[in-house]
Amino acid sequence: xxxxxxxxxxxxxxxxxxxxxxxxxxxxxxxxxxxxxxxxxxxxxxxxxxxxxxxxxxxxxxxxxxxxxxxxxxxxxxxxxxxxxxxxxxxxxxxxxxxxxxxxxxxxxxxxxxxxxxxxxxxxxxxxxxxxxxxxxxxxxxxxxxxxxxxxxxxxxxxx
Amino acid sequence: xxxxxxxxxxxxxxxxxxxxxxxxxxxxxxxxxxxxxxxxxxxxxxxxxxxxxxxxxxxxxxxxxxxxxxxxxxxxxxxxxxxxxxxxxxxxxxxxxxxxxxxxxxxxxxxxxxxxxxxxxxxxxxxxxxxxxxxxxxxxxxxxxxxxxxxxxxxxxxxxxxxxxxxxxxxxxxxxxxxxxxxxxxxxxxxxxxxxxxxxxxxxxxxxxxxxxxxxxxxxxxx
Lengths: 160, 223
What we know:
The complex is a heterodimer. Chain A is an alpha+beta fold.
């Protein structure tokens, strides 16, 4: 039995159903998916670069992805993640094939959770999840707000 | 039986309120209207928490502002909100509206509305229709408020994300277990301090009604 395929097919059906029930706010409801793993990993760090790097190290060590690169910019509220070789790529492909734009990145959920849990970030929001299947990667754009005052610090985010 | 289409079609979402209190007898009528909403198998899963306390409303307002602002700041940075409001010709007015959105101030008004009613549903009594029943109750409240001369607004923002919904429950002392109560929205109630355009622009029936089969726009003759 292909356990990875089995797990992704289960997740695909759940996310397909959630989108059907909740429409565009489904992503807002799934932000805790994946956090149990990262919360068990004793992530430590004193700033966002250290926390994100520590999360990536543990996510890679667990074999969930081959690699994640990241950058933080645009008034320090844009966290851009480029995720390659993700174990959950199949889930995203199945969603896309069913006519639903993928919306729930587990690796991003993990990293955002630790910014909140370990650094006390006020809130976060996944603004975009772009699937690039031919290159075997996803690009996530997430807004990260260290404090409530960072909300409203608008700028023009670059298009990929 | 009176036709209530005029009440329905003249209702507007009100986000600016006078500080004047809402009398108990009017509030009771609004809650009574909710009680009579349609509900699957008569389960009546709804529960209502009426909040007048300023400090509590401030917390709800702050939560709503942060939730909406977090999303709308990102949408603005992605260019989405600018597209949505491109129809506002006056650039000064457009910028004012955009700022109102991306700062989250659009959702902060629980602080000003004299009454906030949190609408939650029990998930522990077997109802299979909780979100739908609660939505029907909210609509009844809004229509009754409007018929009484009050303004109201249905606000999903502070409970839209899973984390924010938990914070909202904590503010009001609602059990936070995911299998206990679903918080679907709050309704703000008060005397309107704004006169919104009436009638609001709406799609025509031609754009949304099909006859007999999906996609069939031509109305069949009958009788």
